[in-house]
Amino acid sequence: MPIEIRELIIRTTVTEQTGAQNGQAGNAANSAVALNEADLNLIVEIVLNILKEKTER
Description:
Blueprint: H1 20-56
């Protein structure tokens, strides 16, 4: 007999970093975002090329 979940509760705690920790975390986050944007641009380009090839057939 399957179990149906009707409610899901997710709790989280957010804390603000201060001082040197904040600077280091910010630099790491900016690098990760830049890398993700580059990856995303590459993926978008590949998908657009695939779609273009499909319409040319």
